[in-house]
Design a protein that fits this description.
Length: about 150
């Protein structure tokens, strides 16, 4: 039996925990880092803006063409995290997933998920809890997930 993955993410990284139901607590699964998420726009690669800023795709949202380098780095990380979740789903590593992130990054992550993975999202918590250790996270998660 697989459990529930709990993804606690922000623009600069993510930690994945797992629970197997009431009384099982949280187990650490993995951590991902996104150093670009910590950088300022001026510190990020300026070449990328030219490529994204001159898109001629008519169906593309104008906001995506006007993303700052920092927003693009966050969106890239959201796609990387979504690929990890897709692999986990394909490998039957979890039954469902809970996403915890500040609202802006949560939206990016939600957008990046493929439909089969998105269908396994049990709940979303729109809060930045990334700096909390596992013990401090438990009360916030207990309302959503049986720990």
């Amino acid at each position: 039996m697989s459990g529930t993955w709990i993804v606690v993410a922000h623009r600069a990284g993510a930690r994945i925990f797992e629970t197997h139901g009431r009384g099982s607590g949280l187990d650490y699964v993995q951590e991902l880092r996104n150093e670009a998420g910590r950088l300022k726009d001026s510190e990020l690669d300026s070449d990328r803006q030219g490529a994204a800023g001159h898109s001629s795709h008519h169906g593309q949202d104008s906001l995506s063409r006007e993303q700052s380098p920092h927003e693009r780095a966050a969106a890239d990380f959201a796609r990387e995290l979504s690929r990890l979740l897709e692999r986990g789903r394909n490998e039957h590593a979890y039954d469902d997933v809970v996403l915890v992130a500040e609202p802006g990054f949560l939206g990016m992550l939600r957008e990046a998920l493929d439909a089969p993975t998105a269908s396994l999202v049990r709940a979303e918590i729109p809060k930045n809890l990334s700096k909390m250790d596992m013990q401090a996270l438990t009360p916030y998660l207990a309302e959503t997930v049986a720990l």
